[in-house]
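Input record, target 12 of the design panel.
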């Protein structure tokens, strides 16, 4: 049928081999093909795409390419989008347990279950209109996935900064308000009400407690809190415009 030229912009280049980055890629089209198929065949999952233009005009992902088309593919411009529009509710795949823990600690709604398979993740993401976070491009290419993002960083703590930056979450970080264990919201609870559940030393040294409204787990400013505090402070510092 002919040739088309595909140029990826911005962070979409992360998915390409070095030789194809920041330049038009020539693609041979043998039959009637939607532009979405070509983009994904070149390695870029559709949830990462914000806009496609052909010869300067925006086209939908279902657009059937024509011989000689000059195709430009742009990422979502999330960094200039209001958080309320982005609606940052997440679901994470079973390799991102630590990132889930950190996102919940920072107050974000993040679903996770180590037993969910790819099909479950895609279904729940679709049904609840959640952003699917994964490092598996194949998972993001599933048709059911509307909102998703391929996490680039390998280290969980770096991933946290990446997600805050990518989804423009700086103003939304609210540490220690959500249960890292189950994603439920925390609420303050009277010490007298939970005395029977506390170890003797905890009972002696702490007076302020929160309880998860979902799983009942009790939290206080003990060793886990102390351990997490420097990291949380680093993130808050970053959210105030300083470098990580
Ligand atoms: Zn909980």
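The sequence produced for target 12 reads:
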């Amino acid at each position: 049928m002919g040739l088309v030229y595909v140029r990826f912009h911005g962070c979409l280049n992360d998915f390409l081999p070095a030789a194809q980055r920041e330049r038009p890629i020539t693609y041979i089209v043998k039959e009637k093909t939607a532009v979405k198929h070509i983009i994904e065949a070149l390695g870029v999952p559709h949830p990462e795409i914000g806009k496609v233009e052909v010869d300067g005009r925006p086209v939908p992902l279902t657009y059937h390419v024509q011989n000689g088309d000059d195709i430009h593919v742009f990422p979502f411009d999330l960094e200039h989008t209001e958080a309320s529009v982005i609606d940052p509710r997440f679901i994470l795949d079973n390799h991102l347990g630590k990132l889930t823990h950190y996102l919940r600690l920072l107050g974000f709604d993040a679903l996770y279950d180590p037993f969910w398979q790819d099909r479950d993740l895609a279904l729940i993401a679709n049904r609840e209109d959640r952003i699917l976070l994964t490092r598996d491009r194949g998972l993001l290419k599933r048709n059911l996935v509307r909102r998703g993002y391929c996490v680039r960083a390998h280290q969980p703590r770096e991933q946290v900064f990446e997600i805050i930056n990518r989804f423009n979450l700086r103003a939304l970080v609210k540490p220690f308000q959500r249960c890292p264990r189950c994603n439920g919201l925390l609420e303050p609870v009277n010490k007298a009400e939970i005395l029977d559940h506390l170890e003797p030393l905890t009972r002696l040294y702490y007076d302020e407690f929160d309880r998860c409204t979902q799983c009942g787990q009790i939290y206080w400013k003990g060793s886990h809190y102390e351990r997490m505090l420097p990291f949380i402070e680093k993130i808050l510092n970053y959210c105030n415009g300083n470098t990580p």
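The longest helix spans residues 223-239.
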